Amino acid sequence: MSKTAVGSDVEAYCTKCKMVLAHSIVAMQGTKPRRVRCNTCNGEHNFRATKPVPKVASKKAAAKTTKKTTTKKTRQSWEEVMQEAAAKPHKKYSMSGSFGEGDWIEHATFGLGCVQAFIAPNKITVRFADTTRLLVCNRS
Ligand SMILES: [Zn+2]
């Protein structure tokens, strides 16, 4: 007598217990179990040999979405700010110039930057595309 038959025990994944457990075969489809009853919770369900796979796919998709959103957010903000800044008036940087928080300056070497803070009496921190730098100002 074949081991796999209605009424015999088979290892299957239980959707209620969420693990592979001993089940009793309720119905067969060809040579394979079709429906099984969990010996642990007595729940009857379709036969699954192992844990369902689709969960991995959805997890992957979720991770992809999260990654996409995060990358976009950080990246775009600075790019957008730069784009906006290009359209705004900006001052040419010089050590004798006077700058305030929020001013856009154009530095001969570092390019376009945004003044983050004014440090009295004569220094400013400026954020450039790659890094933030401390520059001298108000020098007469
Ligand atoms: Zn169960």
Description:
The protein has 1 helix and 9 strands. With 140 residues, the chain is an alpha+beta fold. It has 2 domains: 1-55, SH3 type barrels, CATH 2.30.30; 84-136, no CATH class. The strands form 2 sheets. The chain has a 5-stranded mixed beta sheet, covered by helices on one side. Strands 1-2-3-4 form a 4-stranded antiparallel beta sheet, with no helix packed on it. The relative contact order is 0.10. Zinc ion (ZN) binds at residues 14, 16-17, 21, 38, 40-41, 43.
Number of helices: 1
Can you tell me the CATH architecture of the largest domain?
Roll
Supply the number of structural domains.
2
Q: Can you write the helix and strand succession as a string?
A: EEEEHEEEEE
What order do the strands of the largest sheet run in, or round the barrel if closed?
5-6-7-8-9
Residues in helix, %:
10-25%
Kindly estimate the percentage of residues that lie in beta strands according to DSSP. 35-45%
Radius of gyration (CA) equals: 33 Å
Distance between the termini: 102 Å
Counting DSSP E segments of at least 2 residues, the number of strands comes to: 9
Structural class: alpha+beta
Overall pLDDT level: 84
Global morphology: rod-shaped
Which ligands accompany this protein? zinc ion
CATH topology annotation of the largest domain:
SH3 type barrels
Largest sheet: 5 strands, mixed
User: What is the multimeric organization of the chains shown?
Assistant: single chain
Per CATH, the class of the largest domain reads Mainly Beta
Query: Which spans have pLDDT < 50 for at least 5 consecutive residues?
Result: none
